[in-house]
Write a structure and sequence with these properties.
The chain has 222 residues and is of the alpha/beta class. The protein folds into two domains: 3-15 and 157-213, no CATH class; 20-152, 3-Layer(aba) Sandwich (Rossmann fold), CATH 3.40.50.620. 46% of the residues lie in helices and 13% in strands. It has eight helices and seven strands; from the N terminus they run H-E-H-E-E-E-H-E-H-E-H-E-H-H-H. The chain has helices at residues 3-17, 38-48, 76-86, 103-117, 133-143, 158-167, 172-188, 202-213; strands spanning 28-32, 54-58, 62-63, 74-75, 94-97, 123-127, 148-152. The strands form two sheets. The protein has a five-stranded parallel sheet with strand order 5-2-1-6-7, sandwiched between helices. Strands 3-4 form a two-stranded antiparallel ribbon. The longest helix has 17 residues, at 172-188. The radius of gyration is 17 Å and the shape is globular. Residues 27-143 form the DUF218 domain. It comes from Emticicia aquatilis. This is DUF218 domain-containing protein. It holds the Pfam family DUF218.
Length: 222
């Protein structure tokens, strides 16, 4: 397999997925669950820079030992909590949702937690992996439409992000398969009402089909 060609197609998907929106101050930094600990690291950066006074970690999927730098199996939210507190974020500004198991539930379960705890947040910074920024935003347009929000991630290039993932024991193959899976969801989920339709450029879809042909199809939706 020609790795240069793989990277060429993968970077097209990465740049499309990484919707760029300017940061704006918010009531809370809302972090959606992930297998990538750098998502929590970036939320900590934003908090320390003063973009919001609270952090929400949403994710009930239990990750195995080591996957999120955890020493015991933990939910994404709990593992992210540990990362943030270790980095100096006060525990009392962190809100946890340990029930969500997918992107739609990140929004519905977090809405429920905020209501139960009496928080009246109206403005959010949504944080995810770079290649999930667009899908997070498209989902929020449907599932979180009553609020104001922007969607963002640590501003890595494709090469920088792959290198960061490898440092965290996440393979390039896994990242690319996740990116093709996310593009498929952007294509088919609007008709299911899960997210808002996003225009997909022809060259991006062509790159997707090339990567699928090469075998990067490990995370397709049914």
């Amino acid at each position: 397999m020609d790795e240069n060609l793989v990277d060429y197609y993968a970077e097209l998907l990465y740049d499309y997925h990484f919707l760029k929106q300017p940061l704006q101050k918010a009531d809370a930094i809302f972090v959606l669950g992930s297998h990538d600990p750098s998502v929590a690291d970036y939320a900590v950066e934003l908090y320390k820079e003063g973009w919001a006074n609270y952090i929400i970690f949403s994710g009930g999927v239990v990750r195995p030992v080591g996957e999120l730098r955890n020493q015991t199996p933990k939910s994404e939210a709990d593992a992210f909590f540990d990362i943030a507190v270790k980095a100096g974020v006060p525990a009392d500004v962190i809100i946890l949702d340990n029930e969500a198991t997918n992107t739609g539930e990140n929004f519905s379960c977090t809405r429920k937690v905020l209501k139960e705890k009496g928080f009246d947040f109206q403005n959010f910074i949504l944080v995810q992996k770079p290649y999930m920024v667009r899908r997070t935003y498209a989902t929020a347009l449907v599932q979180f439409s009553e609020f104001k929000f922007i969607s963002t991630a640590k501003p890595d290039s494709y090469a920088q992000y792959i290198a960061r993932c490898i440092e965290n024991n996440i393979s390039k193959e896994r990242v690319i398969s996740n990116m093709t899976g996310d593009l498929q969801r952007l294509k088919i989920y609007p008709e299911k009402g899960f997210l808002a339709a996003m225009e997909i450029p022809e060259n991006v879809w062509d790159a997707y089909e090339k990567l699928i042909f090469m075998g990067f199809e490990g995370r397709m939706a049914n």
